[in-house]
Amino acid sequence: MGRRKDQEERRRSLIDATMAVIADAGPSGVTARQVAARAGLSPAAVIYYYPQMDDLVAAVRGDAVQRFCVGRERIAEECADPAEALPRLIAAGLPSGPEDLLISAIAQLFGAARREERHARMSTGFWLRQVEMYTRLIERGARTGAFRPLLPAETAAEHLVGLEDAYGVHIVSGNAALTRERALALILAYAGGVLGLPPSGDAARSGGGVTDPR
């Protein structure tokens, strides 16, 4: 068990190092040497655990899916009240701050989508899954009377995901005029208006976020 735990921790450290490399240099910068330098290991150790660098990039994509899809779907399922789930989902969809390396890495992967089909597929699937999550929540809220949508559920869902993505880039870029708190307030205001639900400040005060599934 001890050896298995050590191996899992080593793999985790390599994935985190890869995330930092992608955030700085994009997916094309992921080499055994660059990852090793970030992780404080030898290139041989990187290759031992991940002979193909594409597998490390895929692991970073997997982290994104776990955090922004799986984790948020869990929130939506656990909250009986759609109006309670909504601000939590929005808060969890934003970067923690300028230092959020996963968001920076995702932005780099999206930027590479126009050059490589595998990244384009990831971008499309990532978008569709999040839109579906919000669409289901909005439809449930409309059925229960928690929401009175002014737009079709899928259209409102697309707006929410688009706002998270757009504001997220500003947050990780260090835009002092658009902090996480301000972005959260703006999206909550939009959601309140389009869904007939007054925005709540609870998520902004709590910081939102999802439990790390690792």
Automatic annotation (TrEMBL):
The HTH tetR-type domain, residue ranges: 8-68
GO MF annotations in UniProt: DNA-binding transcription factor activity; transcription cis-regulatory region binding
Gene3D superfamilies: Tetracycline Repressor, domain 2
Stored PROSITE patterns: HTH_TETR_2 (PS50977)
Keyword DNA-binding: yes
Pfam families documented for this protein: TetR_N
Keyword annotations of the record: DNA-binding
Residue ranges flagged as DNA-binding region: 31-50
Highest taxon above the source species: Bacteria
Protein known as: AcrR family transcriptional regulator
Keyword Lipid biosynthesis: no
